[in-house]
Amino acid sequence: RAGGDSAPRTAPNSLSPSASLSLSLSRCLFRAHTRQLAEGAPGSSEESRRNNDKGEMAEDSALRRARRSGHEFAEFGENGWTGGAGVDAGSPDERGSMLDAHKQGRSEFRWNRDEGRGNTRQDEPKLTSSTFALTGDSAHNHAVVYWSGQNSSVSTPCFHASDGFFSFRSTDYGSTYERMNDKVGSKTVLSYLYVCPSNKRKIMVLTDPEFESSVLISTDEGASYQKYRLNFYVLSLLFHPTEEDWALAYSHDQKLYSSVDFGRKWQLIHEHVTPNRFYWSVTGLDREPDLVHMEAHTPDGNVQYVTCRAQMCTEANRNYPFPGYIDISSLVVQDDYIFIQVPTSGRATYYVSYKREPFIQIKLPKYSLPKDLHIVSTDEKQVFAAVQEWNQNDTYNLYLSDTRGIYFTLAMENVKTTRGIGGNQMLDLYEVAGIKGMLIANKRHDNQVKTYITYNKGRDWRLLQAPASDLEGNDIHCILPFCSLHLQLQMSENPYLSGTISTKNSAPGIIVATGNIGAELSYNNVGMFISSDAGNTWRPIFEEEHNIWFLDKGGALVAVKQPSVPTRHLWVSFDEGRQWTQHSFSSVPLFVDGVLVEAGAENQIMTFFGHFSHRSEWQLIKIDYKSIFSRKCTEEDYQTWHLHNQGEPCVMGQKQIYMKRRPGNYCMLGKDYSRILSAESCICRAHDFECDYGYERGSDGNCKPAFWFNPSTVSRSCSQGQNYFNSTGYRKVVLNNCTKGVKELYTPRKQQCPNRPPKGLLLTTKDGKLTAGLGSNVTFMVHLDEGDSLRTNIQLDFGDGTAVSYSNLSWTEEGIKHIYKSAGIFRVTAFAENTLGYDTTTLYLHVTCPVEHVQLLAPFVVIRNKEVNITAVVLPSHSRTVTYFWWLGNNTEPVITLDGSISHTFQSEGMHTITVQVAASNTILQDTKTIAVKEFFKSLLLSFSPNLDEFNPDIPEWRQDVGRVIKKVAEFPEEQLLVAVFPGVPTAAELFLLPYKNQSEGKKKSEEALERVWVSLGEIHEDALNQNLVEFELKPGVRVIVYNTQLTLAPLVDSSPRHSSSAMLMLLSVVFLGLAVFLIYKFKRKIPWINIYAEVNQEKEQEMIGSVGQGDSTPKITLSEFSTSKELMEKELDARVKSKYLLRVGTGVSSKYTSILFWVLDALLPS
C-alpha cells in the first residue's frame, strides 16, 4: 500500500523501496499467485513482518502491503493459526501486490469535472509528469509491482500475461522502460519475481514450472541474470532477515530446501513440512543465525515442532522444543513468542514460549472455552489475542496478556469481524501508528455496531465524538452516547489503495478514515473524516470516498477518488486536511487502479497506474511532486503538539510532546524530522492499571475476583522460607511509564510462602490422551494447584504392579515415563503427601495394540428357537481393550459388547448371516459367517486322507470350495446337504442332512421320512466309507479319500420340549450304570472276590449295557481285556467318546439333561 503507515505496526510491512521499481501484469498465472499470497505465503508475509521495526526505511515504505485497517488473524481451528497479522496479500517488494483494473463497466461512467469537495480551491500548480503506455497489454487485467535496487535511479516493472510473464526495467525512475525478457532468452517463460529484503540489488526470478524448473539470479538490479536448474518446483521463498544470500524454498510436494548462495545450490531440510509453517531464526533470541523453525510431519501422520540448522538438518541434528505432538498449522514464531496448539479430544489447549523458554500453557479465563483463537499482534511486549468463545458466532473477544504471554485478561467483548481476501476473518481492530497504546475497534452490542477508541491498551474505551459541523459549515447535532462517529476498519482489497483508515508513524495524531455519523456503523451515506489530535476531535474532508496517502513523511496529504470514477486530478493538503489544492496529473481522465508513493529517498515521486477506458492499455504515470514544495523546512516551520485524551495530558503514563510542521507551510520536511520532542513520566493513577488474571472489573470500577478464581491460591513453586508476590487484583498496563502515585497500592505485595497441605492434584498424560500403544513410552504429568512442591512427596502407581516415588514435585517437571508390557485398562494413581495432609487422583489408561486376526466361531446348523453361543477369537488376545460389534441375522443396528462371546436365539428358519467387527487401538477387523437355522437335522463327521492336508491353506475360501466338492460326491440332493469343513489340520468336516424346504406341516411325518432317508444314507455311506469307496480329485493326480469318522445313530434332533419315556429310561440307565462303574472302580481293592473274578475269568468276554435309545434295540459296547496300562487308557478314552456320541441317540432329551449326563461321565471316568 502506498502512503505509509496506514495500519498497525503488527501488520507485516513490505520492505522499503528505493528508486528502483518493478511491475508485473498478469491474467492467468497471477491468479494462482494471488491466491497464494492470500493464504499467507511465507516469502511474502514473514519477511515483511520481521523487518517491521527496521526504522524509517521500513516505516515510510511506499509499498505497504495492505497496511490494513483491520488485523488479519493468526488463525486457529481446522486451518490452524496462520501466523502474524496480515498475511493475505503478498509483500510487493518480494512477490508483488495486485492491481486489479476492474475494467468491466468503465464505459458507463462519465467524467465529472467537480472531482471532490474540499474546503478551499486555489490556483492549480502544475506537476511534472510523464506517461508510459504498456503497448499491447490491453488484455491484461492484473498488475503486480516490485521494487528493486538500492538508492539508485533504476526501476523495473514486470508484466504477467496470459501467455507468460513479461518484465521491464527503467533507469530513470519510471519515465521510460525496456523489456527484460530478452535478457533471459525468448524461450524462457517466467512466473514470479522476488527481491532480497536485505540487499535490493539482488533479484530472484522463477520460471514457469509447466515448462521448466529454473531460477534466474541477478545481483545488479536486474541488469543481467544467470540461470540455474532446479530439481524441484518452488512454491514460495523466504529470505533471511539479515543474511542476503540465505533463503528457504518450499516445493509443491511439501519439501523444504535451503540455500546459502542466493539460490545457486539447494539442500533438502525436511521432506514433509506444513505450508507456511517455517521460519528463520530471530536475531537476539536464537543462538544460531541459520536456525530454521518448522512444523514437520511424522511418517504416521502426526505433527511436530522441529528446529535445525539450515545446512545441517539430519535426523541426528534435529531438536524438538515441544516434546509432544501439535495440531497442524498451529506453529507461529513471532517476535519474542512461539505459539502452538496441542491436539486434545475436547477443549483446545494453547502453549506459548517466551524468549525460547520452555512452553507453558496459556491461561485464559476459566470459562472462556475458546472454539477459535487468533494471535493479533506481539510487538508491544505483550500478546493481543482474539478469542471466539463458545457462545459467539461472528464476533470475538479481545484479550491482552502479560509480558510473557501466559495470563490473559479481557480488553473488549464482541469485536466485529469481516470476511477478508481469501475468506480469512478480519478483526475490526486498528492500532494507530505513532502513538503507543492507542486502539480503535468496532464493537457489536444489541445488534448495533459502534466504534470505540482507547488510549491505554483497552483499559478504558469510549465512543468517538462526531464533528461539530459539516463541510458547508452547518451544525451537526450528535449527542453522545446516542449518536457518535463510526469508522470503517476494513482493509483494502487492492494493496495499492489506501483503504478505509490511514495513519503514519512519522505523522503522529493524524488519522484519516471513512465513516458515518449516527447511532451505529453504516456503509451508506459515508464520507471522509480526519483527526489532527489523535481522535479527540474530527472534521469532515470529503463527502465521497477517497484514497488518501501521506507524502513527505506525513507532512502532506494526497487524495484521489475511488477507482470506480475516472479522474485527472489529485488533491494535496499541507494543513492536515483543512484546505486542499487541486493538481492535474493527466490530460485525460484516468481510472486509477493504484498509486505508489516512493519514499525513503531524497526524490519525491509518485507513480499512478490505471486505464483510460476498459479497452485501453495500462498507463504508468510518473509524477514528481517536488514542485509543490517551495523550500525545505527550517526550525521556524515547526510547532509543538501535546498528546492528550480529552484534555488528560497523561497517556500511557507519560506527557508526550511532539514536533509538527505548522499547518499551511509549503516546505519539505526532509529526513531528519524529529517526532517526539519530550516524554515526561506521570504519577500513577487507577487508569494506568488493568485487572489481573482471575479478576473482573465491577460496576464500581474496582477489580474483584471472578467467581471461579481463588485469590488465596499460592503457586506450588512457592516453598516454605521463600517469598512470593501476592496479587492485589491489578497489574500495570504493559509499557505504561507512570511512577509513584498508587503504584505501591496496586503492585503485587511480597509475602512469605505459607506451609500448606497439597491440594488440587491432577494427573494427565503429556499428550492429553487416555490411550497408549503397547510398548510405547507413556509420559505422565503431575500437577499440583496448591502445596509446597519442594516438601511434598509424590507417589505414582502405574497399575501394572510397578510404582515410583519422588521426594518432591520438582523431580516430575519433565514428566514420569513408563512402558506397559501388556494390553489392558490400568488404574494409574498419584498420591501427594506432606506433613499437613495429602491428596490423591486417579487416571484410567487404555493400553492397546492392533488386532491382527479375528475368527468367528459358531455352529454351522442350529435349531430354531434354541439359544446358540457365538464366539469371536482375537489374536493377539486382548484383555478389556477390545470392543465387539455384532450384527445378527437381519438386524441393522449392532449389538456392542466388551466380551468376545454372545448368545442369540434365531426365530425363523433359513440362512442367517452373522458379522462381527473387532475394534482395538486404530484397527478394525471383521469376520462373517452364515448359519442354517432348521427345525431338525442330522449330521455325519468326516475325515480325509492325509494328502489333503498338504494342500490346506486354512482359509475360509478353500474350505468353502472343498465343501462344494464333497456335496457333489455325496450323490444326494444338494439342497438337503450342507458340508462344513472345520478350520485347522488335520482336515475334518461335518455333513448335515437337512429337511425339505416345505416340511412345516406334518412335522412328525417329516421326521420319520428323514429318519428313513438317514438310515438308508447311513447304511450306504457307511459301507462305502468303510470300503474307501468315496473319494474326489482335488487336482490332477491328487485323489482324496473320505472316511467316516462317526456316523450318528441318533434319530432326528427335535426342538420340542417333550421327553419320551424311553429317553428318560436311557438317562436313568446311564446314570445307574455310571454309579455302578464308579463304585466298583473305587472299592474294588476292598472286595476280594471281585479281584479274584477278574483274575480267574480273564478269558471270558465281558459285556456292558450302553445307553438306551428310542428304538427297541439296545446297542452294546464290547470291552476287550486290559492287557497293559496303555491299552487300558485307550479303551477308557474310547468308551468315553462312544458314550458321549451314544447320548445323541436320545433326541428327546433336552440339552439340560445332556449336559448333566456329560458332567456325570466326566466325573466318573478316570482321567
Automatic annotation (TrEMBL):
SMART domains: PKD, VPS10
Domain PKD per the UniProt entry, residue ranges: 787-854, 882-933
Compartments in which it is found: Membrane
Membrane-crossing segments per the record: 1063-1081
Keyword Signal on entry: yes
Start-end of Basic and acidic residues biased regions: 46-74, 92-126
Recorded topology in the membrane: Single-pass type I membrane protein
Gene Ontology CC annotations of this record: membrane
UniProt region (Disordered), positions on chain: 1-22, 35-129
Gene3D superfamilies to which the protein is assigned, alphabetical: 2.10.70.80, 3.30.60.270, Immunoglobulins (2.60.40.10), YVTN repeat-like/Quinoprotein amine dehydrogenase (2.130.10.10)
Keywords assigned: Glycoprotein, Membrane, Repeat, Signal, Transmembrane, Transmembrane helix
PANTHER family, alphabetized: SORTILIN RELATED, VPS10 DOMAIN-CONTAINING RECEPTOR SORCS3
Family label: Belongs to the VPS10-related sortilin family. SORCS subfamily.
Protein name, as recorded: Sortilin related VPS10 domain containing receptor 3
Gene source species: Oreochromis niloticus
Gene (UniProt): SORCS3
